[in-house]
């Protein structure tokens, strides 16, 4: 039941992503190395990065300078 639910959720997410960006994500290949709290922290940091970019406090392309850019 869980896998069936996740399959439907992946399908839905890809429908939304396809509508807005004409692409898909292999959500079934995602491996999380931390717990749910870690995931929330990563998402919050990503949203903060976007806030800083919108406020013109950081260049959006700055991520290219990161050692994680090619990860």
Structure summary:
This protein has 71 residues and is an all-alpha fold.
How would you describe this protein?
This protein folds into two domains: 1-30, no CATH class; 33-64. The chain is mainly alpha-helical. The mean pLDDT is 89. It has two helices and no strands. The chain has helices at residues 2-21, 36-54. Helix content is 55%, strand content 0%.
Jot down its keywords:
2 domains; 71 residues; mainly alpha; 2 helices; 55% helix; single chain
Radius of gyration: 15 Å
Helix content: 40-55%
Distance between the termini: 33 Å
Average pLDDT over all residues: 89
Q: Judging from the principal axes of the Cα atoms, what is the shape?
A: extended
Q: Give the number of DSSP strands.
A: 0
Number of domains: 2
Main β-sheet description? none
- Helix count equals 2
Detail the topology: elements first, then pairings.
Layout lengths: L1 H20 L14 H19 L17
């Amino acid at each position: 039941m869980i896998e069936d639910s996740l399959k439907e959720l992946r399908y839905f997410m890809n429908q939304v992503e396809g509508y807005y960006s004409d692409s898909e994500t292999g959500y079934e290949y995602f491996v999380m190395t931390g717990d749910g709290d870690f995931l929330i922290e990563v998402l919050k940091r990503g949203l903060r990065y976007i806030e800083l970019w919108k406020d013109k406090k950081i260049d959006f392309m700055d991520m290219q300078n990161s050692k994680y850019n090619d990860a």
